[in-house]
Every structure is written in structure tokens, then in C-alpha cells.
Design brief:
This protein is mostly helical. Helices cover 66% and strands 7% of the residues. Helix 9 packs antiparallel against helix 18 and helix 10 runs antiparallel to helix 11.
Length: 702
């Protein structure tokens, strides 16, 4: 297949063996650079300006007839049972209070919400919060009464309890303010029912004795766990950060150092290769044994035993295929191991390169904060529509039909009101554009990092005296990319962002089709999303090769993509071997950094905070999560470094004679051994067979 593709593209001007230019001993990476794909960088800056314009229009700073002014409070504010947004809507209750100055929503036993000025700080079963009409009725009834004070208090309490039994009043329960809602710390339905029943039969004193144990029992589940967990995290937050970030960075550098030691990387790779083969054979043997037991069991369906029996032979077949692939690629795997080892050496000489992904994360966070503000105002610019959730015959149905709303405009009894935002077409397009801007910018930041790492590794490779390569080389790579190749990063990221935006649109359409129960459309859209996912993976792979070409030769994105594509064709087996080996190394690195950080953090917490923490495993799990994120940064740098080393080696091999090459000694030894084997076989067969198959130029050398 590779030969057919090569024959079809062999006449392309970019598909040829690289030649050394007449510039003395100067390597290609030291060529005179010029700005590449400037128009794409200008387009990216213009997209940011347009995004800012959309955001300012949504914030009301800029007047626009297409985008309404938003208010993020509308997204988080609770909505009472009349459909008013607490703290946003100007609605005067029958008692004369304005919901504009009542920013919190307090729940009723019925599920309704009422607006209050603040969430209760303490639990008091003698004080109640009621629906607006009920509260107005009670205030009016006892406001004009001439009863004695103690009699009035008892009568009012009895009336409150009566309405609480009808789920129209709620005792004041200690609550936590979350966004625009009051979240009680107790399970209110059980407490209120017990409170109501006990109050009607006993005194207030006895009712308190009944309700409090129930409240403490209810609070010991979710709320108590949350409080204890937050207390633990606050107590050991610096330990989590220290072991999750600091320890994982140290372990990452230790892992890079281990990869440079003779024999360690070979042991990792070949043990992993053998472990995969042994695992497949063991799984097949186990499956066959279990299938035999199931076949003898009268209570087991025979089709399950048969399926497991055939699955065992499939596993055996996969083990054989894996063995044949390894045997076929064994020499190229040796070359790939050498590439990984040299990449580790390059990273070790420039330690600052491992911290650059952290700078990328900070840049993305800064952009996301601004973008999130714009999106929040835009999302709150739609019309708030009151919907009623009612229990229908088929379950819970959400509808806008008039038959579930009373004449006063709110839901009938048995239905719960909730809000939904309805957006105009212009607002939807503006939101889609903001999503596209975020996708493009995030991919641009990733592409910039790949270019910087690739250029730094290229400068290391094409250096006769690598002992002089320090962090200053990485700084120089960062300067060159920032000065000349940000447009190339913008171009490559634009391609990925377009594909991601199409996938986002398909996901939106798929959700709409699922709500409309269009199953065929849902399946077709799922297939399209899978195809786009495959396209995205292929484009990211080609982009990575293109960025290396830009780093080495200073090409623009289109030319670098073509040259990278043809380089893949000329070295398909090499690149496949490097991909397999690098994935194994990356996996081992993730496991090493994550597990070692989590285990060391666990022992430190056990020794120093063992008696103070409620849950020892929760901070340990957070240490593991943070360490895994740090390992992802190391793996991204290592993967890009390995890809760059391989391309630099191919360029070095094609452009320079053996005595002029920049290849390190380990790579030279690997290539020399494979070349000797190749020419030995070629001489043995040349006398018997005059017609040979066409072989790729680069593949013949390794």
C-alpha cells in the first residue's frame, strides 16, 4: 500500500530526497528565517477583536441592535413559584416586599421557592418562612388581633404548623448559600412532617425533642461528609499542592534521567512488549478454561460458553499477530528506543522545557476567564421562560402548555416552576462564534508549545557540541517561534478548530434529535461524529509533523504539511515503531509519576496528619489527580521531542554524508548495524534475482 502511494506521488516536487545546500557546515535549523503565515496570525487577532466586540455588546458597554444586554445573575438566581427571579425581577409581594431586594431562594416542602433577603444562619422550629399569600394572610390576621401576646404566639405557631403540613410553610433551617439558592443542611421533608405531627399532639418542648435526633441523623450523611471533607482539604491544601506539583516535577525529572541510563529504556520497552504478548496468551488460556467450566454447567446458557471459547482463540490470534509485528519491526524498534533515549538527553539538557506547558496552562486560564465573562453575559441575554414540571402518566413531563398554569401566571398545584432561557438566532450564532474562538485559541496555545519544543530539540540535535546546550537554547527557540512562526501555529490550530466546531454543532443537533426521538438521525449523527473524530486525530498527527518541518527548515504551514506528509510515506515503518515505543514510554511515565507521588503523599499524611484527618484517602486521591496532570505535561514534551528527534535524524541522514552527520553516537551505531544487515542481504540475493521491489530510500537505511 505504501509503495502504491509512493508511486502515485513520487513526481511531486516536495517528495524527494533532501539535499545539502551550499552553505558550508551550517545545519538547516540555522537557516535564515522569515515570518510565516502572517495572514493567519492577523486573522486570529481579528477574531479576538470580534470576540471582544460581542462580549462588550452582551455586557451593555457597546450598544447593539442584534445582541441584548445580559445579566449573569439571571443564570444563577433562583425563581419563585410566581416565575420571578430573586434579586433580579421587580415584583412586589402581597406583604409589600420587592423581590428585587430578596436575592436568595428558600425551598418549601412542596418544591416551590420563595425569595428571602438572606439564608437562615440557625435552625429555629418556632420561626417559619411561607409562601407570599400565606404570609400576608397570617400577618393580616394577627396584625389586627387584640389577643394577649402569649395566646397570639401560640395561635400563630399553630397556624404556621397547619400550613407547614400543607407544604406552604417551612421552618427556618440553617442553610448554606450556593449561588442564588439556600441549601438546607437537613433533610427537610422528614423533619417537617415529624415536627408538624408532634406539634399537633404534644407541646413545643416535646416536639423539639423528637425532631432534633432525626435532624442530626439526617445531617450525618451527605452534609456531614461534605463538611469534614472540606475541613480536611483546607488543613492539608499545601501538602496536596506540594506533592501533587512539586514531587511530581521532581519525579518527572528522575524519570527523564532514568531514560538516559544505559539499558534502562531497553528493559522498559522489551519487558512491556513481552508483557503484552504474555497477557494476551494468558487471557486466552483463562477464557478457554472458563468456557469449558461453563459448558459443563447445566445452568449456564450454552451460547455464553461458546462465545467465550471463540474469544479465547481470538486472543490467541492477537498474540500471534503481535509477535509477528514485533519480529517484523524489531530493528526499527531498536531505532525508536534510541530516538527516545536521545530525546530524554535533549530534555535533560534544557530542564526549563518541562515547565513550559505550565506557562501554556496559565495562558489558557487567563483567556478562559475573559472568555467566560463574555459567555456568561451572552448566555444571560436570552428571555427567561417559566416552565412547569408536572407528574404525568408517563412520568415527569416538562411543558409550556397553558393547562398547567393558573390565571395568575404560575404553575397549578402539583407542578413545580422552573426557568429556561430562550435565545434569538443572533444570540445562538454569537455563542457559536465564541465557542469557535475558544477552540481556536486553545489549539493555538497547544500548537505554539509544540513548535517551541520542536525548535529547541532541533537546535540541540544540530549542534556539534551538545554540552553547550542549556536553558538559553530553549529561550532562543521561544524567541524564534514568537518572532517568526506564530502564524504557522495559528494556521494549524485553525484547521483543528474548524473540525471541533463542526463536531460541537453535530452534538447540538444530536441532542435536539434525541429530544424529538428521531433515532435514525441520532445514529447517523453519531457516525458523522466518529468520522470527524478520526479526521481530527489524523490532522493532529500531520500538524505535529508539519510543526517539526517548520522548526527545522522554517517552512510555512502548507509546505511543511506537504513535506511532513511525504516524509511519513518515506518512513512509515520507522514512524510506526517510534509511535509504539513512545506510547509505551509515555504510559510507564504516567504510572511512575502518579503512583509514586500518591504513595509518598499518603505516607507523609499518615505520619504527620493521621490523627487530624477524617478521610485520609480523599487528599491522597487529589494528590494523584494533580500528579497525573503534571505527568501529562511531561508526556506532551517527551512525545514531541521523540517525533522531532526522528525527523532530525532522517533529515541528517538524507542531507549529509556519513562523516558530516550530526547524529549522536547511539543513533549512528544503530543505523550502522541495520545498514550492514541490509547490504549483506542485498548482496546475497543480487546474483539470483535481478529484479527487486522498489523500496523507500529512507527505509533502506534502517
Amino acid at each position: 500500500m505504501i509503495q502504491l502511494v509512493s508511486s502515485a506521488t513520487k513526481d511531486h516536487p516536495d517528495n524527494h530526497k533532501l539535499e545539502k545546500k551550499s552553505s558550508g557546515d551550517l545545519p538547516p535549523v540555522e537557516c535564515r528565517r522569515k515570518c510565516t503565515d502572517v495572514s493567519m496570525l492577523v486573522l486570529l487577532v481579528c477574531s479576538w477583536a470580534a470576540m471582544t466586540g460581542v462580549g462588550l455588546a452582551a455586557m451593555g458597554v457597546v450598544d447593539s441592535k442584534y445582541i441584548r444586554k445580559g445579566d449573569p445573575r439571571r443564570l444563577v438566581s433562583g425563581m419563585d413559584y410566581h416565575g420571578n427571579l430573586c434579586g433580579v425581577t421587580n415584583y412586589v409581594t402581597p406583604s409589600g416586599e420587592d423581590t428585587l431586594y430578596l436575592p436568595k431562594a428558600y425551598p418549601m416542602p412542596s418544591g416551590y421557592l420563595v425569595c428571602v433577603d438572606s439564608c437562615p444562619k440557625d435552625t429555629d422550629y418556632d420561626k417559619f418562612i411561607c409562601e407570599y399569600d400565606v404570609q400576608h394572610e397570617i400577618d393580616h390576621l394577627f396584625g389586627t388581633s387584640e389577643m394577649a401576646a402569649d395566646v397570639m404566639d401560640e395561635s400563630k405557631k399553630s397556624l404556621y404548623v397547619f400550613y407547614a403540613s400543607r407544604k406552604q410553610c417551612m421552618p427556618q433551617i440553617e442553610s448554606v448559600s450556593f449561588l442564588g439558592y439556600c441549601v438546607p443542611k437537613l433533610k427537610l421533608n422528614e423533619v417537617i412532617l415529624r415536627k408538624a405531627n408532634s406539634t399537633l399532639t404534644d407541646s413545643n418542648e416535646s416536639s423539639a425533642e423528637v425532631s432534633l435526633p432525626i435532624a442530626s441523623k439526617a445531617s450525618s450523611s451527605s452534609s456531614d461528609f461534605f463538611d469534614k471533607a472540606m475541613a480536611d482539604l483546607a488543613r492539608v491544601r499545601y501538602v496536596i499542592f506540594g506533592f501533587g506539583c512539586g514531587m511530581s516535577l521532581i519525579l518527572g525529572m528522575i524519570f527523564i534521567t532514568l531514560l538516559k541510563l544505559p539499558g534502562v529504556l531497553h528493559m522498559f520497552i522489551w519487558l512491556s512488549v513481552v508483557a503484552i504478548d504474555v497477557g494476551l496468551v494468558a487471557a486466552g488460556y483463562y477464557s478457554k478454561g472458563v468456557s469449558a467450566k461453563w459448558a459443563a454447567d447445566e445452568f449456564r446458557p450454552k451460547n455464553e460458553a461458546a462465545a467465550l471459547f471463540y474469544a479465547s482463540y481470538i486472543l490467541y490470534g492477537l498474540a500471534c499477530v503481535w509477535t509477528l509485528v514485533i519480529l517484523f519491526l524489531r530493528k526499527r524498534i531498536v531505532l525508536a528506543i534510541s530516538c527516545v533515549s536521545e530525546a530524554a538527553k535533549a530534555i535533560g539538557s534544557m530542564p526549563m522545557i518541562t515547565l513550559f506547558p505550565g506557562l501554556q496552562v496559565l495562558g489558557l486560564v487567563a483567556f478562559t476567564v475573559v472568555w467566560g465573562i463574555y459567555m456568561a453575559f451572552l448566555a444571560s441575554s436570552g428571555d427567561v421562560v417559566v416552565q412547569c414540571m408536572c407528574h404525568g402518566v408517563d412520568g415527569v413531563n416538562t411543558t409550556l402548555a397553558e393547562n398547567v398554569q393558573s390565571n395568575e401566571g404560575f404553575c397549578n398545584e402539583g407542578c413545580i416552576a422552573h426557568k429556561e432561557h430562550m435565545y434569538s438566532t443572533n444570540t445562538k450564532y454569537a455563542a457559536l462564534y465564541l465557542v469557535f474562538c475558544w477552540l481556536w485559541t486553545s489549539q493555538f496555545i497547544v500548537a505554539t508549545g509544540q513548535l517551541v519544543v520542536s525548535l529547541a530539540i532541533s537546535l540541540w540535535y544540530f549542534n556539534r557540541n551538545r554540552k553547550l546546550v542549556k536553558n538559553s537554547t530553549f529561550s532562543r527557540a521561544l524567541f524564534l517561534v514568537s518572532s517568526y512562526h506564530l502564524g504557522t501555529a495559528a494556521y494549524g490550530s485553525l484547521v483543528i478548530a474548524i473540525v471541533n466546531t463542526i463536531r460541537a454543532v453535530l452534538t447540538y443537533v444530536q441532542n435536539k434529535a434525541a429530544k424529538s426521538k428521531l433515532r435514525v438521525a441520532v445514529v447517523l449523527l453519531s457516525v458523522l461524529k466518529c468520522l470527524l473524530w478520526c479526521v481530527e486525530k489524523c490532522l493532529k498527527f500531520i500538524n505535529k509533523q508539519a510543526y517539526v518541518q517548520t522548526a527545522i527548515f522554517g517552512y510555512s504551514f502548507c509546505k511543511a504539511s506537504r513535506c511532513g506528509f511525504f516524509l511519513i510515506l518515506r518512513n512509515a515503518l520507522r514512524i510506526s515503531a517510534v509511535a509504539v515505543v513512545s506510547q509505551i514510554v509515555v504510559f510507564i511515565g504516567k504510572i511512575f509519576i502518579t503512583v509514586a507521588s500518591a504513595v509518598s503523599g499518603y505516607h507523609y499524611l499518615d505520619i504527620h496528619f493521621g490523627d487530624e484527618l477524617n478521610f485520609l484517602m480523599l487528599p491522597t486521591a487529589l494528590i494523584a489527580i494533580v500528579a497525573y496532570a503534571v505527568s501529562e505535561m511531561f508526556d506532551e514534551v517527551l512525545g514531541m521531542a521523540v517525533t522531532t528527534i526522528l525527523q532530525c535524524f532522517v533529515v541528517d541522514e538524507e542531507m549529509f554524508e556519513a562523516d558530516e552527520r550530526y547524529a549522536p553516537s547511539s543513533l549512528v551505531g544503530t543505523v550502522d548495524s541495520t545498514q550492514q544487515n541490509y547490504y549483506k542481504k542485498k548482496n546475497e540475493t543480487s546474483c539470483c534475482n535481478k529484479s527487486h521491489a522498489i523500496v523507500m530510500p529512507s527505509e533502506t537505511r534502517a
